[in-house]
Amino acid sequence: MADLERAAAAALPVDIWDFVAGGSGAELTLAANRDALNRVQLVPRLLRDVSRCTTDTVLLGQPARAPMAIAPIAYQRLVHPDGELAAARAARDAGVPFIASTLSSVSIEELAAVGGNLWFQLYWLRDTGHTMDLVRRAEEAGCTGIVLTVDVPWMGRRLRDVRNAFGLPEDVRAANFGELSTAHQRRSSQSAVAVHTSEAFSSAVTWASVDLLRARTALPLALKGILAPEDARQAVGAGVDAIVVSNHGGRQLDGAIPSIDALPAVVPAVDGAVEVLMDSGIRTGTDILKALALGASGVLIGRPLMWGLAMGGQAGAEQVLRLLAEELRDALGLAGCDSVAAAPSVNGARPGRPPAGARPPRTTP
């Protein structure tokens, strides 16, 4: 995967690479996500029969051939002309969900025509009627879940985009909106994409918004961007079906806790009442196992999918998903797990700390 990242960095224009790779502020959380995942250590269980080791699972009530989904990523035609169409086809063929972004450069209806398991990611817009119209379109297109992103009252200050005065080329648009927007108007020392989102997104999205959405749709509903156990418990009370523990890949609040570090407190807070997914920093199959061991039911794959897309369209995206699935199966088997369901028995630990759930050491009187 690191080889693919280097190849994509060399192949893409600098401003587009920075848009994909960058984080907010000093990029402390961007770096912390990887550091935290690297610190997690696994305690393998031995002498178990893993001759039939499978990565099959269920996510939001639908079967998946691996515990992962494609994260909602905006404007994928920036890195390849086929954009989300290629990524959705790769997800379909890999048997994992594809989450279409509100800011997708391909419309919901076109992505639904690809087939496969399609979820729709929703940003709460200033125009609530437009927001609900997107929900209606997702339902009519056959989406099997709605993922409301709750950590973007406005876009985090992404300094790479500011320095590049980043704006969208005219041939890449938010297809669910249709028209050219302020995201295409480059301005000195500003990110045009950030200007557009500040104009389009509501900064007044609240738990009342979640209640309204829950009442509006019968589709499974996930909240993406949860880090605090208190918010996780409130999500349970709001009747959602899943939460995504996420710091937006280090692209929103710089200094936020790494997602993998938030996971061990969030999982017991919901006590099995909702499904818990995780994203931010996942790069390998072993990373996926670490998230599973700490209580997640699956992960979302973000930047690696974009690297594969940049280097080979659908074939490149397929390569990423195949590699992750192979690495996960290898990690599961070596850890003594014959299935995704067995992964929590491989307790995640950090140096100097006992594994989660471990008994305290005996003391001599």
TrEMBL record:
Residues 1-353 form the FMN hydroxy acid dehydrogenase domain. Residues 352-365 have a biased composition (Pro residues). It holds the Pfam family FMN_dh. The keyword RNA-binding does not apply. Keywords: Oxidoreductase. The keyword Oxidoreductase applies. Residues 343-365 are annotated as: Disordered. Its cofactor is FMN. Belongs to the FMN-dependent alpha-hydroxy acid dehydrogenase family. This is Alpha-hydroxy acid oxidase. It comes from Luedemannella flava. The lineage of its organism: Bacteria, Bacillati, Actinomycetota, Actinomycetes, Micromonosporales.
